[in-house]
From TrEMBL, chains A, B:
GO annotation terms (biological process): DNA recombination; DNA repair
UniProt KW Disulfide bond keyword: no
UniProt gene name: ruvC
Residue numbers binding Mg(2+) 1: D11, D145
Family to which this protein belongs: Belongs to the RuvC family.
Catalyzed reactions per annotation: Endonucleolytic cleavage at a junction such as a reciprocal single-stranded crossover between two homologous DNA duplexes (Holliday junction)
Source organism (scientific name): Corynebacterium gerontici
Subcellular location field: Cytoplasm
Cofactor (UniProt): Mg(2+)
Name of this protein: Crossover junction endodeoxyribonuclease RuvC
Amino acid sequence: MPAGLRVMGIDPGLTRCGLSVVDAGQGRQVIPVAVGVVRTPVGAALTQRLLELSQAVNDWMDEYQPEVVALERIFERGNVSTVMHTAHGVGVLMLAAAQRGIEVHMYTPSEVKKAVTGNGRADKKQMTAMITRILGLSEAPKPADAADALALGVCHCWRASTLGYEQRLRSNTLK
Amino acid sequence: MPAGLRVMGIDPGLTRCGLSVVDAGQGRQVIPVAVGVVRTPVGAALTQRLLELSQAVNDWMDEYQPEVVALERIFERGNVSTVMHTAHGVGVLMLAAAQRGIEVHMYTPSEVKKAVTGNGRADKKQMTAMITRILGLSEAPKPADAADALALGVCHCWRASTLGYEQRLRSNTLK
């Protein structure tokens, strides 16, 4: 198991971008380190918003030194202009990781839901309840973007754990 | 007229990104300074491609010190995955401008066609012929992405020229 692996979970967006940092513990244990939401002003120029998002994620990376980023994969549904803005934001977020040599893994919302609750169609309430329990938090994380960022971190820890297990199984080094 | 204004035209893309630099001259004169196409490997990781695009556009900005960027506005048409990749690239390109305090103006393909040929539905052949003539080039720019980047630069010079004229007309300072 990749105990100690530090993962940054990112729920991308320009109006609200959820950021989390979690550490993989023993077995399926995941330890919460930080969670927050970066907001950029809706009325500001797109260039200014991208600059602010870039600065915020770089500050987080400086402070927490994640080894991996787990990023939500976005789709072209809903409001087209919002999706395009989010896609521009994803470019800036991925660039920040690339400039530090941090690996980026992308997960669809249903992959995250399935990993965390066992159900790819879990609703927000179920997700928040599971995340609160898994991370041993004293209260539910808010807003939704913060909870989603934590869920991405948990999802990657568990998937990475399984991947590691399978790799060692294949190479016969499993103890 | 904003004679001397240096504009970088960008036709965004990850597989091919057209870059140009032009200077606004007297009247409707536009002077070509540089043109090129940045390519990133189709098979490489998205993070790597974004990093390479960012490095290339930053190198161009270091070398040519543009005052304004004219960027093609992208739409959610065609292959969805290509559009998303281009949108991620646009985020990285806009960030490079924002980090230097360079203004970004976006133009739709039909705005560029109308500015350059007078016809918002001009085809590639007409566009290339007009750009070659306007810039006094000895041969047509290739590939299409390079010609498009030059057209964006010309479009912005002429639009900026008109904007300046209108502003001075309103403020009664027109000589």
